[in-house]
Description:
Radius of gyration of chain A: 18 Å
Largest interface: A-B, 101 and 100 residues
Number of domains of chain A: 1
Number of helices of chain A: 4
CATH superfamily of chain A: Electron Transport, Fmn-binding Protein, Chain A
Order of helices and strands of chain A: EEEEEEHEHEEEEEEHEEH
Low-confidence stretches of chain A: none
Largest sheet of chain A: 7 strands, antiparallel
Strand order of the largest sheet of chain A: 4-3-7-10-11-6-5
CATH topology of chain A: Pnp Oxidase, Chain A
Strand content of chain A: over 45%
CATH class of chain A: Mainly Beta
CATH architecture of chain A: Roll
Oligomer: homodimer
Distance between the termini of chain A: 31 Å
Mean pLDDT of chain A: 96
Shape of chain A: globular
Structural class of chain A: mainly beta
Amino acid sequence: MKTKLGTTPFIYPIPIVLGGANVHGRPNFCTLGDCGIMGLNPSLVYVSLHRDHYTTEGIVENGTFSVNVPSTDLLAVTDYCGTVSGRDVDKSGLFVVFYGETGTAPMIDECRVNLECRVVHEFSIAHRQVFVGQVAQTYIDEQYVTEQDGRRVVAGLPDLDPIIYALDNRYYRVGPAIGVGYQEGKKYRPQ
Amino acid sequence: MKTKLGTTPFIYPIPIVLGGANVHGRPNFCTLGDCGIMGLNPSLVYVSLHRDHYTTEGIVENGTFSVNVPSTDLLAVTDYCGTVSGRDVDKSGLFVVFYGETGTAPMIDECRVNLECRVVHEFSIAHRQVFVGQVAQTYIDEQYVTEQDGRRVVAGLPDLDPIIYALDNRYYRVGPAIGVGYQEGKKYRPQ
């Protein structure tokens, strides 16, 4: 039996990332769950921010942003980045920062995976500013890539150990693998 | 040490949902990882589809869609829905379907959480069609809501038991809770 929950946007699990942008020439990072994939080819991702957020200024200024995926050992600093604004606190020293091809999207060395993105579309709805980015380059700590049969293979999710969030305001880690994409359906297919 | 991965949109974990739309008057469902939250208030979500997908036709036709969050016991049928097109296979009988306020966004009774959405913005980039929906109503199986101190509280993520996906083409379940939102940062904050 269903019951109504109002208009809560209850899509879960929520990936937790650190969005990065240079704001007035200095790296700034904000904790985001409003982010995700929009396509593989072209490689598209989005971040959705409040139009008054400090990071928003930097993305508009440069037309670039980064997405940095923290692992659970970075939980405390990741949560912290979501509780203070770059307007009040200089977050540029919290991490070792590097830049890639765009030159203006600051990335976090301590995060195992980093995306640098160029804004290819943006729009606003109410106070929300959504930036769609095309991925210019993806970076990963080299220990999470292995060579298998001449192909480079990225480590599984438990090794990347991301932070999961949900609207119960709890953080979680990833559990065990339960299946393989495009294979599990074969168990279902009517004969 | 970082290594380059090309332009892979490596944001993870990826939430797996079943997107729903009426296509030519019949419910159709497709498996999606390109979906997520864009805001809480207003309540905004998005789905990103190939412009030629059968479901895309239905969303354009009605201006509505649904997001249904399957739990791990629905893994086989969820994977199956991503391997066949509604053009070739009638998926309307795979689930018990119900409708809400919009009347045209088919929802899946077997999924613990359902969102019915009205399209408030859309855009295309290359072959991708992105629909941003405002949530008209969220539904949840009533056993996952309890009353605590006069407030309705939704069950935690392990009880909702969603399917997680990642670009290693594996499905995962959620692991244990590791912290509380807006609290873990206090352990980090410099004194």
